[in-house]
What we know:
Oligomer: single chain
Order of helices and strands: EHEEHEEEHEEEHEEHEEEHHEEEEE
Largest sheet: 10 strands, mixed
Strand content: 35-45%
Amino acid sequence: xxxxxxxxxxxxxxxxxxxxxxxxxxxxxxxxxxxxxxxxxxxxxxxxxxxxxxxxxxxxxxxxxxxxxxxxxxxxxxxxxxxxxxxxxxxxxxxxxxxxxxxxxxxxxxxxxxxxxxxxxxxxxxxxxxxxxxxxxxxxxxxxxxxxxxxxxxxxxxxxxxxxxxxxxxxxxxxxxxxxxxxxxxxxxxxxxxxxxxxxxxxxxxxxxxxxxxxxxxxxxxxxxxxxxxxxxxxxxxxxxxxxxxxxxxxxxxxxxxxxxxxxxxxxxxxxxxxxxxxxxxxxxxxxxxxxxxxxxxxxxxxx
Length: 304
């Protein structure tokens, strides 16, 4: 329900299928305009060129971002061989071109090369990224003609499965399962070099974030229409299932003031717990000795 001063009583998690073109911020701005709610964020940015799953956090649910951004992700990517770009994707300017070896069109050879990218590794992020150096986003430095100094990041590639080869470009369609902080654009660059040529990311679609799936997401026009009709709460998903923490059902008044809770369940020290009612996520608590201490109190709660 819309309210004055940019606030509403909306509080929930929405799975959005972001279209190609708008930034993640653009998509959020449309929802803010449609709902009248200023407290809207997301868990994990998608580049404008990318499509797919964007987890949108509304109202008190914005406080769940810290728990959702660390989840593993799955992407469907197209890697186009023969040229590398400054942004490492199809929207950038070509910086290097190279002949493409004939082996690139061989599925067995391609699958074997992809195996070399599995596991834990250090990855150099793109210059055109939101990573900050001395408080300034790297992409701003790059667009101003500078060269941002970025450090390699430790990532994990759990799977890199060849889904198809387009020999006319040539290009590979690859399904990646990766850890937090992995840049698929950087993987495209590195795969091109490992193949003895150059490459960039031609298309990208995010299909999973943790337990969330794009097949359960709303399109942006449908989400805006639901918001304008004040039916958006009917579209919210259960945040408890996305968090993946064990749950504990209690009366709302027991956590309203952030009091510790007694807990005799066999939990590990520091384990997080979703404190719930059947209709709401009330808080996230953490195991401390023989009790649960509050970490994020969300009363009156986030819609389930």
